[in-house]
Amino acid sequence: MAELKTSVQVVSEIEVLIEVEVPSDKVGKELDRQLGEFGKRARVKGFRPGKAPKDMVKKTFGQEIAREAMRRLVNDSFETAVGKAGEHRIVGEPQVEPGVVRAGEPFKYAVRAQVVPRIDVHSWRNVEVAVAPATVDGAQIDKKIGEMQDRHKERVPVEGRPSDTGDIIIVDTTGWVEGERDTRLDMTAFEVKIGQGRMIPGFEDELIGLTSGEAKTFDVTFPEDYGSESLAGKAARFEVRVQALFTEELPDLDDDFAQDLGFDSYDALRQDVHDKLAAESTKRRKEEIERRVMAVVLERNQFSVPPAMVESHMRERARMLVRLFQGQGLSQDMAIQMVERNIEGLRSAADYQVRRQLVLEAIARQEKIDVEEEELADAIVAKIKEQGEKTAKLFEHPEMREAERLNMIENKALALLLESTSVVDAAPAEAPAPGE
């Protein structure tokens, strides 16, 4: 039996066309097999099911037989054909361009596939970038400690005065909408921080000047864009009765405050805040250096990227964001809508990430950077110790081990790139954004 024939044509740096030829004897066998299958179940006028002559079945169902034969021939040869792409690394779903099946002739079709471009990176050594030094000043420390102080403020009952902006008021409410009782507006022990702006317009203003135990009735109107359509734009009346009234007091910034947070003294607290801010600043500077260096290298090395790789990165990031928004309390529909509103930003970021990955892969290949099996094993063991047994289960899969190996190679390539970079401690006039 003749062998399957394939040839690979390079259409562009990111696309190949694999031409496939299935030998005529295999085509004939598949057509005969399909003719037999159709003959078993075909209903031909004047004949009992499965009893019609083959010539009659072929005449009646010839097109259907050819289509099914074509589908089977493609399915049976597709993996072998794609495997002939050789050094070209296919990404995404290859597209089949089918031919026509005819008895006595070879069956020809083509597979169009996106591939990872093989690039040679130049001018990546000795890049010079200007980045502001990592610094921490007293104002930053004061702000961070102020946030800690705010988180530890205490509620104190208000005595001798009515409620005012900034107070926390606990109320029971009874409500009416357009003159009709509406239990949706009834609340018990409902907490409002006056002036925070979380209630419908006018509601918080009406709470100013009340004292504990006092009752008040007032009218407000729901905004036209209110979340509930049945309430949007409608007049409402609330009767509120004050249960309790509190103000918030900040703790003094002294040794007692620091000791409540686990430090020996207020000076020790400030030093700890300074050290953490310095570490964060150093990390941001390192990330900024990397971003600027990559921007320079990508500008010097222009190349096309497969849309399938960009789409894959974008979809994965979109899924992560949807899960994140859902974890923050949004419904799945609202989370998806938020992601969709920023889809172009996600696509731009994905394009940058793909280019960054391909550049680092190319540097690693050019510099013969690799990861030995023992080194990979040590890294996996360290991750399992840090992240637990769930991670151990993941690394039982060979594809996860390979993904980790590739990630380690990229990190080595990035380290080599950054080692050759010259960094000036001065901010440039304008900073290029990621992906630009």
Low-confidence stretches: none
Name the helix and strand elements from N-terminus to C-terminus, one letter apiece. EEHHEEEHEEEEHEEHHHHHHHHE
CATH level-four homologous superfamily name of the largest domain? Trigger factor, C-terminal domain
User: Helical amount among residues, as a percent range?
Assistant: 40-55%
The CATH architecture assignment of the largest domain turns out to be Orthogonal Bundle
Distance between the terminal alpha carbons, to the nearest Å?
55 Å
Number of helices: 12
- Integer average pLDDT: 91
Indicate the multimeric state.
Answer: single chain
Explain the layout of strands and helices.
Layout: E1 5-12, E2 15-22, H1 24-41, H2 54-83, E3 90-97, E4 107-115, E5 128-130, H3 138-151, E6 154-157, E7 168-177, E8 180-181, E9 187-193, H4 203-206, E10 215-221, E11 235-249, H5 255-260, H6 266-300, H7 307-327, H8 332-341, H9 343-366, H10 373-387, H11 389-394, H12 398-419, E12 422-424
Parallel strand pairs: 5-12
Antiparallel strand pairs: 1-2, 2-4, 3-4, 6-11, 7-8, 7-9, 7-11, 10-11
Helix pairs in contact: 1-2, 3-6, 7-8, 7-9, 9-12
Kindly describe this structure.
The chain is α+β, with helices and mostly antiparallel strands and 436 residues long. The chain has 3 domains: 5-115, 2-Layer Sandwich (Alpha-Beta Plaits); 154-249, Roll (Chitinase A, domain 3), CATH 3.10.50.40; 285-424, Trigger factor, domain 2 (Orthogonal Bundle), CATH 1.10.3120.10. Helix content is 47%, strand content 19%. The chain has helices at residues 24-41, 54-83, 138-151, 203-206, 255-260, 266-300, 307-327, 332-341, 343-366, 373-387, 389-394, 398-419; strands at 5-12, 15-22, 90-97, 107-115, 128-130, 154-157, 168-177, 180-181, 187-193, 215-221, 235-249, 422-424. A hairpin with a 2-residue loop joins strand 1 and strand 2. Helix 7 packs across helix 9 (343-366) and helix 9 (343-366) crosses helix 12. The longest helix is centred in the middle third of the chain and has 35 residues, at 266-300.
